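Whiteboard transcription, Tuesday session. T.W. wrote the structure tokens on the left side:
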């Protein structure tokens, strides 16, 4: 199985290397996709992703995205030309499928805008999320629950991974949603996560 892995915002393809290695050891042919959210627009990144997917579509393939990477993949897959094969599955690791409250809280701040560019503003806008067409592709969502809760947490008593609440990762009722006690930044390196991902790629 061919597998494309897309990193999250503020990260590089290196962050997905450990998961990619585990998949290669399981017999998958892995590819890493990189982008720079601070410099590239969402549309530019999505267009490049669609070109990569079009090349991969000669064979069966799976796509995996961490955080923003999953949102970018969702947008790319949903807008592929009708004659391009869709992936067998999209796997989202801590991916916001609704505008996350922390992005809305910090979205107007200069440091946030400078670091995250158009993608950062996309995350603050629920209407832009709503504008992504639906996908006819099986979806596995793995969400973390190791974030803080309570009075001083922006999530209150909601399960979260430190940056994204589990409810913010949900997309469709038919999707496979798995929650694990992991944090947002390193969910892709968790051993249990790797096993779940491998089982859906081989």
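and on the right, the sequence the group agreed on:
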């Amino acid at each position: 199985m061919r597998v494309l892995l897309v990193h999250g915002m503020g990260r590089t393809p290196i962050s997905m290397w450990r998961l990619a290695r585990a998949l290669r050891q399981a017999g998958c042919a892995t590819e890493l996709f990189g982008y720079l959210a601070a410099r590239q627009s969402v549309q530019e990144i999505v267009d490049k992703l669609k070109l990569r997917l079009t090349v991969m579509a000669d064979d069966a393939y799976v796509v995996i995205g961490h955080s923003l990477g999953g949102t970018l993949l969702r947008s790319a897959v949903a807008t592929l030309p009708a004659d391009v094969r869709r992936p067998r599955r999209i796997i989202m690791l801590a991916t916001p499928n609704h505008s996350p409250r922390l992005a809305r809280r910090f979205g107007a701040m200069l440091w946030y805008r400078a670091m995250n560019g158009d993608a950062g503003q996309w995350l603050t806008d629920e209407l832009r999320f709503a504008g992504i067409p639906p996908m006819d592709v099986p979806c596995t969502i793995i969400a973390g629950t190791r974030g803080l809760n309570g009075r001083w947490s922006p999530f209150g008593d909601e399960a979260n991974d430190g940056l994204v609440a589990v409810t913010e990762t949900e997309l469709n009722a038919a999707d496979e949603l798995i929650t694990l006690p992991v944090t947002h930044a390193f969910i892709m390196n968790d051993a249990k996560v790797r096993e779940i991902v491998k089982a859906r790629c081989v």
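Someone added at the bottom: Strands lie at 2-6, 29-33, 61-66, 89-93, 139-144, 176-180.
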